[in-house]
Amino acid sequence: MKKSLSPLLKLTNFELSRLSKFLFTLMGLTVLANLVGYIYIPMKFMDKINKFTIESSATTEEVLNSLGTLSFYDVTMSLWIVAPIAIGVSGLLFYSIFIWYREWFGKNTFAYRLLMLPVSRMTLFFSKFIVIFIGIFTLISTQIVSLFIGYPIVSAIVDSTYFSSLGLIESMYMHPLFLILFPLEPNYFLILIVGATVLLVMFTLILMERSFASKGILFGIGYAMVALAIVLFPLFLSDIFNNNYLIYGSELVIIEVVLMIIVSISSLFTSRYLINNKITV
């Protein structure tokens, strides 16, 4: 066990060191953009309040009736918070592809040196898989910490009269993106299964292209379509048989989890075959 785990840890650490600059850039962008949003949006709101009060000689009640209050949820729905999340997700998706193709760049391809290491080639595969998930959870943790820093900043800038009583946790539960990305609900593990399945299928497609060149692209597209059809098919059963009670919600979740596990396992075995037998050095 120790002998098999040691190479995995070393390769994971190696891949993590290569990811670190890109990951720190995404983290810095997230924190910086968030801080701008935490300061700019409440200050703009208070300027609007003050301007309306002076120009209309309005009472507090009249201001509230006209402009309402600002909640932390309003701040989190702004581009200053949402955009860094979108950039982080798309950035890591890009990196999950780049993490393979980078090895083949240049004349003296580094990929061959990695594949010739005296360890199982799947160790290389799993190290790349683990590193992507480390990057994902690091960005999620950064965003969560940012929210806990941002809430007192917003509440300090906005006058308590015009600041909604909606709390930080309530704002997080209301946010559609946070419900998906953050472990706020018991079904969060489903998101992890979906993410793992997508990543494993993507890795398989890349290995198909590396193994069969232009034909591999067609094989990969076909494989992705089949995998997608398998996972989505149960969602259309009720429409196909015109029976909304054919499968209950809890049963559908179990079926989807089982199908995604099957797709993930098939992707692992396909990747294992390709990396061991079709990619030569």
Main traits of this protein?
single chain, 80% helix, transmembrane, transmembrane helix, ABC-2 family transporter protein, 281 residues, 0% strand, membrane, mainly alpha
Model description:
The chain crosses the membrane at residues 20-41, 79-102, 122-149, 188-208, 217-237, 252-275. This is ABC-2 family transporter protein. It comes from Alkalibacterium gilvum. The chain has 281 residues and is mainly α. It folds into two domains: 1-184, no CATH class; 186-281, no CATH class. It contains eleven helices and no strands. Helix 1 (2-56) runs antiparallel to helix 4 (79-101), helix 1 packs parallel to helix 6 and helix 4 runs antiparallel to helix 6 (121-157). The relative contact order is 0.11.
Task: Give a quick summary of the entry.
By secondary structure, this protein is mainly α. Helices cover 80% and strands 0% of the residues. The protein has helices at 2-56, 60-67, 72-76, 79-101, 110-115, 121-157, 168-174, 176-181, 188-232, 237-240, 249-278.
